[in-house]
Amino acid sequence: MFKELQPLLAKRSLTITVAALNGEEIRVNVIPHSRPEDTKVNEQVKYSHKDEVAAIPDAAVKALTTPISLTGTAEEIDAKLPDVLLKFVESHGQLQATFDRACTEISDAVKAIDERNKNKSKAEAAGAKTEQKEDPKTKPDDGTAKPEGTLPLWWTDKSVTPPGLAAAQDASSPAAPANGSQVNSQSTNAQEVVSPCQ
Rounded to a whole number, what is the distance in angstroms from the first to the last CA of the chain? Predict the structure, then answer.
């Protein structure tokens, strides 16, 4: 009897109960115990990845602890028990192998999702840093770069007429000098408004 149970005992402990019934019949129960590893794989799915990875159904977890019960006379139990236990252990081993394969696939899927999310957050952080490094002085709203620290030409070069003065000179006297030294009263007023402090 224990030889047949050896493969199952390698994975989990068992409880065997024997009870006398009415008459000469007896009942033998073999009950596999649950292990903490049985529900451990679903814990990582429930809390962090429940929308992306399916958990192992509770019915499949409970099937690992399904007992077997055999009722009959002592002679019948002696004759049938080894074959019944052999089939029980074989079917339980297949169920355990399927369960272990599902646990491995779920763990791999969770790791892959974690890695993907980690890479995604790194890429987003790098993109945000790149946007912060861009200087607003070198990239104005119109898309053309303006050189830093330069003054308009008419501020630094006396031979260039200030913008307001040029329009006033064109309207009043076409022969006015370019430097704006001799202008009428109308252009003098314009010069006072637009020329820099000297």
Answer: 113
Instruction: Tell me the CB-side half-sphere exposure of residue 36, using CA atoms within 13 A.
Output: 0
Within 13 Å and on the Cβ side, how many CA atoms surround 70? Answer: 18
Could you tell me which residues are beta bridge partners of residue 73?
25
User: Do residues 14 and 5 touch, judged by C-beta distance below 8 A?
Assistant: yes
> Exposed (0-12), middle (13-18) or buried (19+): which is 159, by Cβ within 10 Å?
exposed
Residue 13: what residue type?
Answer: S
Q: What is the pTM of this model?
A: 0.54
Give me the helix-helix angle, 185-194 and 163-172, nearest 10°. Answer: 170
For the chain, the 3-state helix, strand and coil shares in percent, each to the nearest 5, are 55, 10, 35
Tens digit of each residue's pLDDT (9 = 90 or more) over 109-118: 888 888 888 8
Could you tell me which of 94, 132, 87, 105 has the C-alpha nearest to residue 44?
105
